[in-house]
Amino acid sequence: MSAMSEEQLPPRVDIIILTWNGLEDTIECLESLKSIDYPEYRITLVDNGSTDGTGETIRERFPEVNYIYSDTNLRFAGGNNLALSKTLDESFDFALLLNNDTVVEPDFLTRMVETALSDSAAGLVGAKIYYYDHPDTIWFAGGKANIKIARMRHRGIGEIDDGRFDEPCECTFLNGACLLIRCELLREIGLLDEDFFLYGEDLDFCLRAIKSGYKLYYQPQARIKHKVSRSTPALKKLQFRYRSWLLLMKKHTALCWRPLQYLNLLGEFFPLVIGFIRRKIIFAHKK
User: Which of 77, 123, 131, 277 could lock onto 185 through a cystine, CB 3.0 to 4.6 A?
Assistant: First the structure.
């Protein structure tokens, strides 16, 4: 994929980070962004009602950051939408959703923007994401989704990075932990759906983008590390994901697919619930 030419003005990118009582993670994320080589960007931090001193600390240590405070926790979709609506009111070409519990490589944004510019139909671009605690192990290398059978998978999850996922490719799902969005796409299909309380917003957004004729690209040269599952307890995560799947199924598929969808969801979630209960019992016996 061709890089941006020296004559071409780089598109403006609004990097949107959402936080809720995650000050230490947020500071590490912002520190890593100081080293990026992309020239035209702004960092917008949306504080979802933190009570850990986030506002005071960020204003003091990172005065260049566009800080937005919400009195209430608007969750993932609402918090990001608060920033995205302002992004669209200004002269930005792209928005980048970035989790506050991530650490980025210096060239990650340059690689993502180059990928978006290589195809005018590229509405969304995702990165290669590693586990923060195991930086040689992949968490996300593009995604596959088939909403008709209620299946979504991360390519490469849990695998050592041995080069098998080093080729850019089109995907049917990209994870919202690091997602570059063309502003033209936002104006066409709208913002994130706030009916998704937690989880599923990114898959819904990807499905809407594909239905509108846009392409989703995975760019392996854009690399970040993610502190996976640090903010949501395992059982709560399971509940939210099941709720999100029910909403996704209702929104994007016909009733005739429900029996197969429910069967697949039970096959996926039942072992997780049993495993969770077993771990609780084992832990209780050890006390």
Answer: 123
Rounded to an integer, what distance in angstroms lies between the CA atom of residue 162 and that of residue 144? 20
Among left, alpha and beta (phi > 0; psi -120 to 50; other), residue 271 is alpha
- pTM (whole model) above 0.85: yes
104 inside domain: yes
Q: What is the mean pLDDT of residues 205-221?
A: 98
- CB hemisphere CA count around 224 (13 angstroms): 33
> Above 50 in pLDDT, residue 120?
yes
Tracing tokens 């979630």 back to the chain, one arrives at 269
Helical spans, DSSP H, in 34-107: 54-61, 75-89
Is there a domain that residue 244 lies in?
A: no
Structure tokens at 130: 């590693």
Helices (runs of H) and strands (runs of E) counted in the chain: 8, 12
H or E stretch including 206?
helix 201-211
Q: Say what the pLDDT of residue 241 is.
A: 85
- Is there a domain that residue 134 lies in? yes
**Which residue pairs from 207-211 have beta carbons closer than 8 angstroms and sit at least 24 positions apart in sequence?**
207/145, 207/147, 207/248, 207/252, 209/123, 209/124, 209/185, 210/172
Distance CA 81, CA 196 (A): 13
* Cα–Cα distance measured from residue 194 to residue 74, given in angstroms and rounded to the nearest whole number: 9
Domain count, the chain: 1
| pLDDT tens by residue, 9-31 | 899 999 999 999 999 999 999 99
What CATH number does the domain containing 106 carry? 3.90.550.60
Structural domain span for residue 172: 13-234
The residues that bridge with 69 in the sheet, in sequence order, are: 47
Examine residue 18 and state whether it is found in any structural domain, yes or no: yes
